[in-house]
Amino acid sequence: MSEHEVSGRRILVTGADGLIGRHAVRRLRELGADVVAFARRFRTLSEADAELVVGDTRNPDDVARAVATGVDAVVHLAAISHWTKGTAVEVFTANTASTFTVLETAAAAGVRDFVVAGSIQANGLDGNPARPLPAYFPIDVGLPGEVADAYSLSKTADELTAAMISTRWGATVITLRFPLTTDAEELAEFRQAWSDDPEGGVRLGWAYLDVHDAGDVIARALALGGVRAPIVHVAAPDTLIGGDTMRLLATYADGVPVRREIHGDRVPLDLEPARALGLLPSATSMKEMR
User: Fold this and answer.
1) H or E segment and range at residue 62
2) pLDDT digit string, tens, across residues 65-120
3) What is the DSSP string of 154-176?
4) Cβ–Cβ < 8 Å for 103, 165
5) What is the rounded distance in angstroms from the CA atom of residue 270 to the CA atom of residue 280?
């Protein structure tokens, strides 16, 4: 990606003080963007990192105030990030109200370029107490969902909101379905846990993304232009735990159809749409940690 594809743009990043948000802000600044960072509070970012706007993404007045700083694109990352981080009502209402308010308010003000943080959890399999397996592998965005938790439902609703904004306003909106996305230290902890119990990660395809790569993928998505309302899985190309993926699936997802051969330790997610759009991460792999 050429640095000039985001250079000079003024980009609003919601949830900017979160883990992915901080890395997105840093990567966009590295590429020459002018960043407006929006969050309820700032513990990490300072005015040296970006222009800071304090507010609630569920509040149209707060969002309008942030948009009025002259932004031409929005990266929407603000969310309660797991079903365990609030009551079901808190998680669902916060996430869906945040996404609708940010996208609708910004689009009504003239913004036409959005990147939205989605989640692999939108299919609901990992949060479902019944622990259903995927209907098939590789997991793709058309996989039938079995949603039984508020977080997964909120992420599904957010995808519908993104599609509506694209249709209503003619906006470019891309939703990135992130897998487990964190820093190297926490990824190593999950790698150990899933290696000890591979069944624990099979519904997620043992997929992961280093948070540095997440920031870069967000910048790449902003640079696309002209892409309306796609939903794209993004992840590292290898599984977090390594080993032969077909053997893992035969053991921990016995009987689930595998629609195409998965070679070596490749992740059992459909990453072809991401590859076609130039959104495959280019930097970090867990191989050096094994």
Assistant:
1) helix 60-67
2) 999 999 999 999 999 988 899 999 999 999 999 999 999 999 999 999 999 999 99
3) HHHHHHHHHHHHHHHH--EEEEE
4) yes
5) 11
What single-letter amino acid sits at 245? T
Q: How many CB atoms lie within 10 A of CB 197?
A: 12
Alpha helix ranges (H) inside 69-123? 88-108
Pairwise CA distance, residues 217 & 271, whole Å: 13
Residues 223-268 have pLDDT tens digits of 997 788 899 999 999 999 999 999 999 999 999 999 999 999 999 9
Dihedrals phi, psi of 193, to nearest 5 degrees: -65, -45
pTM: 0.95
The tokens of 10 are what?
Answer: 């003024």
As given in the structure block, the two tokens for residue 158 are 């957010």
Which amino acid, one-letter code, is at 86?
A: G
Cβ atoms of 101 and 161 within 8 Å: the answer is no
51-54 β-sheet, strand order: 51-54, 34-39, 10-14, 73-76, 113-119, 172-178, 231-233
Q: Rounded distance, CA 111 to CA 106, Å?
A: 5
Task: Identify whether the C-beta of residue 134 lies closer than 8 Å to the C-beta of residue 256.
Answer: yes
Partnered with residue 210 across adjacent β-strands are 182
Counting every residue, how long is the chain? 290
- Which residues have a Cβ under 8 Å from the Cβ of 116 and sit 6 or more positions away? 76, 99, 103, 158, 162, 173, 174, 175, 176
- Distance from C-alpha of 181 to C-alpha of 72, rounded to nearest angstrom: 27
Is 90 within 8 Å of 60 (Cβ atoms)? no
**Burial annotation 229-247 (CB, 10 A radius, 16+ → b, else e):** bbbbbbbbbbbbbbeebbe
